[in-house]
Amino acid sequence: MEKMYWERYSQKKINQVINEALNKNYNYKEEAILGIPGTYLDELEFYDDAPFLEHAPFLRTMIANPNHIGCHTLEKEALGIFAGTQAIEKEVIQICAEEIFQGEKDQQDGYVATGGTEANIQAMWIYRNYFQKEYGAKLDEINLVYSEDSHYSMPKGGNLLGIKSRVIKVNSDDRSYDMSDLENQLGEAKREGVKHFIVILNMSTTMFGSVDDIDAIGAYLKRESFSFKIHLDGAFGGFIYPFTNSASKMNFKNDLVSSITVDGHKMLQSPYGTGIFLCRKGLINYVQTEEAQYVPGLDTTLCGSRSGANAVAVWQILHRYGSEGWLAKMKGLWNTSNDLCELLDEMKIPYTRNEHLNIITMRSGYFSEELAHKYELVADSYEKGVSWWKIVIMPHVKQRFIDDFLSEVKLDPVYLQTL
Fold it and tell me: What is the architecture, at CATH level 2, of domain 323-416?
């Protein structure tokens, strides 16, 4: 993988750049904006003259309330009165698409969405329309394909878009795609008249942190001459996996990849509402809403109006660290994850984990549910019974918390019975 690079900025420069962007935006308080159904935040609750705001560019942007409706990587931008902060969002997309995910310069589109769920559904929506417009496909000739460990946004999207899902089994130990089940299900689909497949692959599943084998799955799809598009769900893994796995093929250098979801509000620690959708040039046009005639440039996003402040928040964090600082931060979490796995090995507690990620999921039956609840571990199912418990090594997970948990496990009667 080519070395990724974007610059680290000082706090002073970050403040300066965002001030300049806000100055390029129209100002509701000072300019004649008569036709826009929006305004700044309510002055009784969100006053804009607090002294601390001078050094809080994200909060200043929130109060100014720029609307980022539309996709700003397209040639014709929507609502140019917010061109300053829209340019910041465009840079966010460029950093993510070109530096982190190795795309060619200016060959990707994207936007800051409300979260990974929206970004995943955006991809499904695009490909459903693509197959319909380019091949005249009927709904029953398109299937959605994803593993049983995939995020619930997949069945949600399939339900909303009227696309039948093919849920592929995984191997119980390493949570990898069951290739025989994939072949059986897609073979059955083909016999039923399905001609096109929207395939979702995971760059870290939510529960197990598993990464789907794009080489094996892509080779099978090509070998069978299927018509397909592949979307990567990197909602959790997108801001860590490319940094801890230099050999990753989950990026735009891989011709199999058409689009990617990333979530800022997980690893990046940005506010909720900062999911990121990325796709190759030309694809997002398949969901252009012609009926949005009152929006300059129309609209190609699922959510429509969006807070410009969320794009500013992502931009701030990316530039506060720079690529080298971010790599160091992710390596730190990865090292802590490695250390925990070594301790679990010593205690003979079975677990599954992708070696490049910070999710460790342990088999149940090695400590009590009371202890799991005390440390807020997450179960694979609260409805069908617990088979797995998950630990996620995030910035707030200090070593002393891990040590305390393991110390209590060693004294737990349930664990002692396993020795």
Answer: Alpha-Beta Complex (3.90)
